[in-house]
């Protein structure tokens, strides 16, 4: 239970940090292809190729924000 709570809190922190400096107005000009970025899971059940695609999807959601879910690597 503590791990679940910590994961949720961490996901809120990461989502907030990842969105910092990310301007939705610039989305058409942003290229998200990067072999060094890891895939991320989101609260909507979608796995995005990386945090950049996650941020772009949040811009397209018209105010319905999706949270980043941290999953420990195996």
From TrEMBL:
Organism: Phytophthora sojae (strain P6497)
Keyword Transmembrane: no
Signal peptide segment: 1-19
Assigned keywords, A-Z: Signal
Cited InterPro entries: Kazal_dom (IPR002350), Kazal_dom_sf (IPR036058)
Protein name: Kazal-like domain-containing protein
Residue span(s) of domain Kazal-like: 31-64
UniProt key word Cell membrane: no
Pfam family, one: Kazal_2
Source taxon at top rank: Eukaryota
């Amino acid at each position: 239970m503590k791990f679940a709570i910590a994961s949720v809190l961490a996901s809120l922190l990461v989502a907030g940090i990842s969105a910092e400096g990310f301007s939705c107005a610039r989305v058409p000009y942003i290229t998200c292809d990067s072999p060094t970025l890891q895939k991320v899971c989101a609260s909507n059940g979608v796995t995005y190729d990386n945090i950049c695609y996650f941020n772009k999807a949040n811009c397209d959601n018209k105010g319905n924000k999706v949270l980043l879910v941290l999953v420990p690597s195996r």
